[in-house]
Amino acid sequence: QALPQLVASTRGPSSTLAMALRLASLRRFCSKPVPLGLPSQSSLKASFKSFGDSVKGFKAGQYFEEKYFWEKANVGPFFLLLLFTPTIYRSVKDAYWTRQLRKMNTEEII
Question: Which residues contact 46 (CB under 8 A, 6 or more apart)?
Fold first, then answer.
């Protein structure tokens, strides 16, 4: 119960303690410092590298093998692609024909 009073107070020596508590709580959410030369686990470059390694390590034959597919593989992206293929196809087709008809309309005006 003394902590809310301590944090709420903004005058005197307790304000320094309140600021220190705020900084300590804020620091908890920051990433840990990494020595120079060592790769950071949370860096953007490291995440892209791990993504690239996972894409390079993909083997379609192993992925679509029945036992691996149903027990170990992450099948979410595959089924999402399967589900949205008609929508994607229709959107691409509409965009293509819209562009072609606008081009033809421009040529007729000229």
Answer: 39, 40
